[in-house]
Every structure is written in structure tokens, then in C-alpha cells.
Please model this.
Amino acid sequence: MTPPPPRMRRRTPGASPVRRARKLGEIRRAQLITTYGVGAMIAVDNESFIVSGLDSWDISQAPKVWERRLSRSLGVKYFRLPPAPDPDEAQDGVRAVRFPVFYSCPTCKSLQPFAGFNSPAGKAECSDCEEALVPSRFVVACDHGHLSDFPYWQWVHRGNEHAAGGRCGGELRLRAEGSTASLRAVLIGCTCGAKEVSMEGAFRRQALKKLGIRCSGKRPWLSGAPAEFCDRLPRTLQRGSSSVWFPIVHSALSIPPWSEALNKIVAPYYDRLKDETPEGIRAILRFEKLLDKYPQFSPAQFIDRIAELRRLEEAPQTEQVDPLDAREEIYQQEYTTLHHTHPEQDGEHLQDFVCEPPSEGIEPLKDSGLGNVMLVKRLREVRALHTFTRVDEPSPADDMLRRSPLSGRPLEWLPAIEVSGEGVFLRLDDERLRRWEQSEQLTLRAERIRDNHNALLRERAAQGATSIPTSPASPRFLLVHTLAHILINEWSLDGGYPAAALRERLYIGKDMAGLLIYTATSDSAGSLGGIVAQGDPERLREALASALARAAWCSNDPLCMESTASGTDNLNLAACHACVLLPETSCEMNNALLDRAVLIGTHGGTVPGYFSQQ
Model:
């Protein structure tokens, strides 16, 4: 990751300027999707930077990633792995720019833009004191994604004769009083004689509005982007707060036919091949030497497969008003695929999806409430960063204006990572689920969460919105989601996997009631092997019984079970860190819409538990 190269003075007349990018540090590729993506701030030693837009990245050494279902839904042609150039060859990679601009010196107390300190090249220190500088702790953002430095001058001069817009001619000072880091101890002053004030109150919702400060409309991660008009309320945030950057990441599993070896070979050349005649396809195959590299496939197989992929791609597709809505179609296709056997084919070492039922059948699970078990012995998941939000986490009811762009100009790709793993797919028994869902008390209990969630969605919807999504909270959703959580917790104890190395994928709808628990992580914990072994019917029956026994009693009971609302925004019932909650990286719903009562019933028996019914 590097900032834009500075302009260098010519050493001799007529010599070309030398442009060298300063290398700041290294981060993992996965972090550029989930933690330090475009628009996110990252601290490097005593400096702070913001990751620049995609159009500034050096992608010359960034491999392409192909996942047709996902790229089609997001409106791009392909994905790219974040650049990871060879350090001995490359001078560039992911760009970053300095942000926030304001720094302070702990010795002379000066508070000013970084350039004013006249620091030596490649360092962040005060030229007068030779002391390491400290980047501003505070930034200003709005819920439409704009970002700017905190207005220190207006803050210290509020109510002063200069507050209307004139300049006082003084210099700002920042002083930390005492040994605490509280806002009251952070004091801002000015050498013009303005009264020193603390930062206390700066985080109040209306604090900046009362000073007449409007959103700047700036997007510092996009080079040369003009400030936009924005009437949203600016908010003060801590530079390192999680509220500064919420990624919106989409993912898809590679499923047949796209996961088959021949399709993987064709994918990089598909755009060139799809409109060619059979003779043209043969010519390209010879030119690219594909028949020499993959002698197990004939030209006729390539031609037939390209024709098949063309038919699939040209099939009518439901118009997607919002890319977020594509999730339903992607998940429905995966749910259907996971029901069928897809064995490993001889010589298909490039095959990305292998799914088979247990060899001994699922007879031991006959009365467990599970209708089907499939062992996913090989899977590939592609996760792509589509956009991001600030201030408030993403919501299905968000206005499109809340989603910030990753680039200053249209691009045909998005950054993504591909991870491989294995998993176990479980489907609930349809008939038992239908009987259980008829309970009136169960419906009333689920309505508590649904009402809270619908109220939140209405609050987050744009003013005047004509269509507001409704909460998915239902007895079926709570059941499948909570079941995934207790199994992940159980397998983290019995299977040797940390809970953070396991992920859930929920398939819930009118005709869907299933879940996939899998290890798809770029870390070493995802390649240990053995998660498929947890799907052995005998072992699964014992693990399910143990998980339900743990869920039957929480160390916070009876308060946990009798809670009328819990969790963030009151979107849970009987669910807490002592019984059900997971690391947020493992949960699709950010630990919301959970209730273990739907699994084992309430203590008084008023609400029936799915697994307590026969």
C-alpha cells in the first residue's frame, strides 16, 4: 500500500523527474475486502492514511477472478484479487493518501495541517521539536459517506467575533490535560486569545449543526473528486471508530456448471469465445495452446460448453433494481444445487464443487428433525467488496445515496478474494417444520422481533420512500439461524476449529429451510480438514443433542430466556454471549434475529421448541 508519489525536483537541467512511491506497509489481501478496503482509514506507525479508489490501484500484477453469477448480479465483467506485487520488482500496488490532514505536536502543542510541520521526507515529525506527530483523533462524516477533518478552528472560535467566517490570524493549539484520554481532557486553543475549549460535546448529534457547519461533501479517497452538495447532518467520529467504515460485501459459491473444470478453463477466454464460430473457437484454442495444456478435453467439448454457457447467460433474468436483491436468486440456486449429488470426477482436479450424501445414509437422524444432510467436500467462495457506508451500518432499507463509490470512474471489475473450504449442508424436515410453524404462541413470539426490526427499517428508509423492505424475522428464520449458531459453537469445541474459522450460510424462504456451515477462510484454519467428518450421521446426532443440551440452560437464565428484547436494536430474544452469539465474522446477520427458545421451547412450555416436538 502506497500513497501517490510526490513530485520530485529535477536535480539537473533537462533531467526527467524521478517518481517513486513510498512504501507504507503490508496488509493481507482479505483485509482489503473486509477491514481496510477503499475509503477505510489505516494507521501506520504514527501516521494515518485512507485507502484510495480502485482507479488509482496498480493492477498490473492483480490476477483476475471469475464468478459469473456474482459478477452478473453486481454489474461487472470480472473481479480482481487486491494487488500483492513482488516487493523486489514492483514500486506500486494499493494507493493511499494522508487522512486526516490535521496533526498535532505533543511538545509544542501546535495543531495544523501536516504540510505546515515541514517534516523530513518519509517521516511524520515536527521540524522544530523533532518530535513524532500525532494524527487528529477526530473526523467528520455524514451517512452519505462524505468525510472531512474536524473543524477545529470553528470549534474553538464558536461565539467569537471571528466565527462568522473571518480569520483571527492565530495558530491552533491542542493540549491533553491530565492522564486520561477523555474528551474533557482534550483542550483546543488559539494564540489569538480565544478561550481554550475542550472537545466535550463534540459528539452530540446536533453539535456541528448548531455551529452552522454543513457536510463538506468531500470524498478524500477519490483523487480529484469535486465536493458534492450534501444536506445530511455531519457527525463527529473517532478516527479509529468502526462507524467510520462499514463494508458491503457480496459472496457466492461456485456451483455447477460454473465450478466444473472445463468452465474454469474457459472463463478467462469466454468474452473472446462466446461470439465466435466453431472455426474461430478452434483457432483461438490453438493460439492459446489450451489443447496442449489440457489434452483431456477435445475441441468439440470446448465448443459445446461455450454454447451451453452462452445459453445460460442469455436466459431471462429477473431485473435487479438493487444489487443487494440479487442475494435471493444466488442463494436459491445454491440451495437447489446442494440438494443433489455432485461427485468428484476423475481427473477433474480443477473442480470447485463436490457434494455427496453420507455413504451410510441418514437413518440415525430419522427422528432428529433433519430432512437431509449433504457433505460438501470441496467448495469455493468468492467475496467481493461492492461499496461501503459510514456512520450507520448497512441496512436493506438504505437509500442508494448511502453507498459510497469505490472509484471515481466506471470500472468493469471489483476487488474480491476467493477462498476454498469444505462444509456440511443441513435441511430441516419439511413436514415437521410445517406442523411446528402452526403454533400461535410461536408466531406471537416471533412478532416481537419482527415489529422491532420493521420499526428500524422504517427509521432507516429514505424520507418519502414508497417501498420499504419488511423484516425476514419469522419462526422459520429464527429456528434455522439459531440452529446454525449452536452447531458452530458445538463444533468449535468438538471439531478443533475456532468459531471464527467457521461460517454460516442461511437458506431461508417460503420453500427453503436449510443451512451450510463451512470453513471458507484464507487463514490456515480453513485448510485443516475434518469439517466434513462432523456431518457423519452418528456424530452429527450426538453433536446436535449436545448442542441442544447446552442451549437448554444459559448462565444468564432465567433473565436470558425471559427477556422480552435483547441485542443491538432489540433484535434478539433469548440470545446472549453466554449461550448463542458468535464472532461477527461467522454470522451473516451480525448476531441479530436469534432466539434459542424456538429450539428447545420456553421453560413453562408455552412456546414449543422445534426439537422438543416429535
